[in-house]
TrEMBL record:
<dbReference type="InterPro" id="IPR000847">
    <property type="entry name" value="LysR_HTH_N"/>
</dbReference>
<comment type="similarity">
    <text>Belongs to the LysR transcriptional regulatory family.</text>
</comment>
<dbReference type="Pfam" id="PF00126">
    <property type="entry name" value="HTH_1"/>
</dbReference>
<protein>
    <submittedName>
        <fullName>DNA-binding transcriptional LysR family regulator</fullName>
    </submittedName>
</protein>
<keyword id="KW-0804">Transcription</keyword>
<dbReference type="GO" id="GO:0043565">
    <property type="term" value="F:sequence-specific DNA binding"/>
</dbReference>
<dbReference type="InterPro" id="IPR036390">
    <property type="entry name" value="WH_DNA-bd_sf"/>
</dbReference>
<dbReference type="InterPro" id="IPR036388">
    <property type="entry name" value="WH-like_DNA-bd_sf"/>
</dbReference>
<dbReference type="GO" id="GO:0006351">
    <property type="term" value="P:DNA-templated transcription"/>
</dbReference>
<feature type="domain" description="HTH lysR-type">
    <location>
        <begin position="11"/>
        <end position="60"/>
    </location>
</feature>
<dbReference type="Pfam" id="PF03466">
    <property type="entry name" value="LysR_substrate"/>
</dbReference>
<dbReference type="InterPro" id="IPR005119">
    <property type="entry name" value="LysR_subst-bd"/>
</dbReference>
<keyword id="KW-0805">Transcription regulation</keyword>
<keyword id="KW-0238">DNA-binding</keyword>
<dbReference type="InterPro" id="IPR058163">
    <property type="entry name" value="LysR-type_TF_proteobact-type"/>
</dbReference>
<dbReference type="GO" id="GO:0003700">
    <property type="term" value="F:DNA-binding transcription factor activity"/>
</dbReference>
Length: 306
């Protein structure tokens, strides 16, 4: 993106939405990202565009004039993009996507194969990895990320579902070690329960729960197995090696078969939001938009467990 266009979309969105927070929702970024973009725009222009107080914001005289011109510029860009898409009824070209390994193989990959069958001119390059990728540096069009996103104005995110987490264990493990009936019981005994836990690059994941009062509760248990494969954690839990905190969609078959059981019902489910992210730009290729829309429509139902 040309430096002269940076911050303009955020500025126009903030004017039209009436607040930075609502503009952030419209652009699928954080409020802080919008504020930083507009601050950099004001610094580049060497002028104030907004008069801001703790309760309101309004345009300066310079801001009014700048908004009218920017609005017309963005309208022209939108019209130009629309012209390129009007002749298209199918996606064509290559889209490169990175996604979490297990989720990608079992859920996202099959969805994208179905999309490719609908669009014979669409090519896909899929990377299955749990590491955090750099879209620009690695030449990726899209990435699917789980959990909290970095606060950056360079990325656009669209929610595509929630990975709800369940605490589960093998019946034999609970029969031998006891059956905790709530969050506090996990660590209350003199011999706390063991866990099989996700760990990557030396960082061990902490389990998060919503307590009865709605607040987040973090739990860390002793573990003999730490790994970066959710599939191995699932097998370890089925084998009775400890409690496991797993995505509900991953544990669903084992729960239905009885090889795993839910340890207890949680006061409020906890989940990690899934987002598909892309680099910010005025022009979103039709092929990329088709992939994003397909995931947003079809992935959330696959993550819901009765």
């Amino acid at each position: 993106m040309s430096q002269r266009l940076q911050g303009i979309e955020e500025f126009v969105a903030a004017v039209e939405a009436g607040s930075f927070a609502l503009a952030a929702q419209r652009l699928h970024v954080t409020r802080s990202a919008v504020a930083k973009s507009i601050a950099r725009l004001e610094a580049r222009l060497n002028t104030r565009l907004f008069l801001r107080t703790t309760r309101s914001q309004s345009l300066t005289e310079e801001g009014h004039g700048y908004y009218e011109r920017c609005r017309r510029v963005l309208a022209e860009l939108d019209a130009a993009e629309a012209v390129t898409d009007t002749a298209r009824s199918t996606a064509a070209g290559l889209v490169r996507i990175s996604m979490p390994a297990m989720l990608g193989r079992l859920k996202v990959g099959p969805l994208l194969l179905a999309l490719a069958r609908r669009h014979p001119a669409l090519s896909l390059e899929l990377a299955f990895s749990d590491r955090r990728v750099d879209l620009v540096e690695e030449g990726l069009d899209l990435a699917i990320r789980s959990g909290e996103l970095a606060d950056t104005s360079e990325l656009v995110a669209r929610p595509v579902g929630v990975q709800w987490m369940v605490l589960c264990a093998a019946p034999a493990y609970l029969a031998e070690r006891g059956h905790p009936r709530g969050i506090e019981a996990l660590t209350a005994s003199q011999t706390p329960h063991e866990a099989v836990v996700y760990a990557r690059d030396g960082q061990v994941s902490t389990w998060h729960f919503h307590g009865a009062d709605g607040r987040l509760v973090d739990v860390t248990l002793p573990s003999r197995l730490r790994c970066d494969s959710a599939e191995v954690l699932l097998e370890a839990a089925i084998g009775g090696m400890g409690l496991a905190r797993l995505p509900a969609w991953l544990a669903a078959d084992a729960l239905a078969a009885g090889t795993l059981v839910r340890v207890f019902e949680e006061p409020k489910p906890f989940g990690f939001e899934l987002n598909v992210i892309r680099s910010r730009s005025r022009y979103l290729p039709f092929k990329t938009r088709v992939v994003i829309d397909w995931l947003a429509e079809h992935l959330p139902p696959l993550l819901v467990v009765p």
